[in-house]
Amino acid sequence: LFLFNVSVMAAMPVIAGAAGTYYNGNLYQNPQSRYVAGNGGYYNSYGAGRGYGQQTTTVTTKTTKKTSVRAGQKSTKQGFALNFGFGHEDADWNFELDKAGSKLHYDDVSWNIISGDGTVYFGESVPMQIKVGLRYGKQYGESNMIDDDISEDGMWVGITDEYGNIIGIDGAPSISAGTSKSGTQYGFNAAFGLTDVFSIGKVRFTPSVGYRYLKYELSTKSNKGLMVEVLHADDLLDNCQLNDDGEIQCSPYVGFVNSSNQLIGYANLDDALAVPTGTARLDLGSTYYYEQPGKSHKYKTEWAGPYIAMDMEYDINDTNSVVAGVEFGLPIYKSTGNQPYRIDWAHPKSVEDKGGLGDAYHLGFNALWSTMFNKVVGITLGFTYDYYKVSKADARTYLNAAQYTTWYEEGRITEEEYNSYKSQNWVQKTNSEVDSVYKSMGIRAGLNVKF
User: Fold this and answer.
1) Taking a C-beta distance cutoff of 8 angstroms, is the pair 134, 392 a contact?
2) Which range scores top for mean pLDDT: 147-156, 178-187, 258-267?
3) Shortest CA distance to 172 belongs to which of 268, 250, 97?
4) Please, are residues 368 and 38 in contact by the beta-carbon 8 Å criterion?
5) What is the pLDDT of residues 116-163, one digit of tens each?
């Protein structure tokens, strides 16, 4: 019987050749998750009996039985698979400061990505795998950056009378727009999985746990903006008016200062400009247009932490397969920024935002089609989507001690204000201040090589 079964197996090269096939590596080791383990080269068990119509009924029965057993088994995955490819992503990144009332967003950022990953399969007797991926991305073309300090109310401060009662608000809302280009990003991930640990119908499932790191750097040049300081107080100090259709219009702030640098009056530009007696100069506050030809904003942002993932795989035929994956992670968030034109801030680190474990999450989805040319080489084509979000991260602003000292000596800030900044070691801290979102969508084509 043993020799007879050997002869049957020898007559079925498709089955014999399938026992040692591999499956391809991941679609896309994006810093945003590419968690798919693709497949290529599985045999089609339904073709095992072709070409043997002259065999006896007994042989046909045995062949059918062998095929049935094979169809219900998991395919052996062992050895090493390498995937290397190129991708393109479109992304948006924005963050908002709650109390400060500031928003900054980079819109329609395009990335060209080079990525690669390797997967080691330990075989059917040890259904485990280890996967490691790397990626590098370069910003493609130009995109817009908007620095918005006008949409929210956080930039306004209260105006008080001589008794300390708030009688209005004073602020300098501003907005600017610049160009972003030449950004970079880096990423890696490592994961441990249980290969095809269970199946539903013909779909095989591989759960995994791992660690993912994403870092991107974006900057802005040619930033242009406008800042207008206005008053909205009582009838005597009000530079704003309410129109019949509900629109509010505010004239820029104009103040009159005497020779002792004391403010002795305000002007409402809707009326004739009357200069009070004793005026030494006009104070226009923070009202101006500006252009910043160099780099006005530079940010380095990191999302790094553990994740869990589930890969799902389905064989279409001997050479084609479809895989899909979903990932959920809890990254730690950190973003460091520099705004070189801000003379009141320190450089090269002007601001820093941090979120701890549990403050942020990451969702990643992907779908992949894979085809094998032979047992060694194949290609993949896939789609990916990633969403990172942090809520209530802590914010730090680093002040320029030398500049504040100069302002204090010139009498432009009070001693109380100066001592307050100094006692905080020139760092302003605001907890639970920052909400930030990074999302991307991309496609990728890759080459599989099996060893």
Assistant:
1) no
2) 178-187
3) 250
4) yes
5) 999 999 977 788 999 999 999 999 999 999 999 888 765 555 556 566
Instruction: Give the whole-angstrom CA distance, residue 350 versus residue 97.
Output: 15
DSSP result, 223-268 = EEEEE--EEE-STTT--EEE-TTS-EEEPPP-EEE-TTS-EEEE--
Residue 131 · residue 27 · CB < 8 Å: no
**H or E stretch including 177?**
strand 174-180
Higher pLDDT, 323 or 5: 323
How do residues 298-342 score in pLDDT, each as one tens digit? 999 999 999 999 999 999 998 999 999 999 999 999 999 999 999
What pLDDT does residue 233 have?
58
Coil, helix or strand at residue 451: coil
Least confident of 71-75, 207-211, 314-318: 71-75
The predicted model scores a pTM of 0.78
Place of tokens 């064989």: 315
Nearest to 437, CA basis, from 93, 22, 40:
93
Number of H helices, E strands in the chain: 5, 23
> How far, in Å, CA of 263 to CA of 234, rounded?
17
Contacting residues for 446 by C-beta, under 8 A, at least 6 apart: 27, 28, 83, 84, 85, 86, 379, 380, 381, 382
CB 119 within 8 A of CB 81: yes
Question: Contact 213/188 with Cβ under 8 angstroms?
Answer: yes
Residue 65 three-state SS: helix
- Cβ atoms of residues 140 and 88 within 8 Å: yes
Contact status, residue 385 vs residue 34, Cβ threshold 8 Å: no
**What is the total residue count of the chain?**
451
- Alpha-helix residue ranges (DSSP H) falling in 38-89: 57-71
DSSP 305-343: EEEEEEEEEEE-SSSEEEEEEEEEE--EEEEEEE-TT-T
d(CA 3, CA 9): 10
Q: Is 348 left (phi over 0), alpha (psi -120 to 50) or beta?
A: alpha
Quickly list DSSP for 365-418: EEEEEEEESSSSEEEEEEEEEEEEEEEEEEEEEEB-HHHHHHHHHTTSS-HHHH
> Of the candidates 197, 444, 204, 200, which has an alpha carbon nearest to the alpha carbon of residue 323?
204
Using omega within 30 degrees of 0 as the cis cutoff, is the peptide bond preceding 31 cis? no
Going by C-alpha positions, the residue among 148, 160, 147, 163 that lies closest to residue 231 is 160
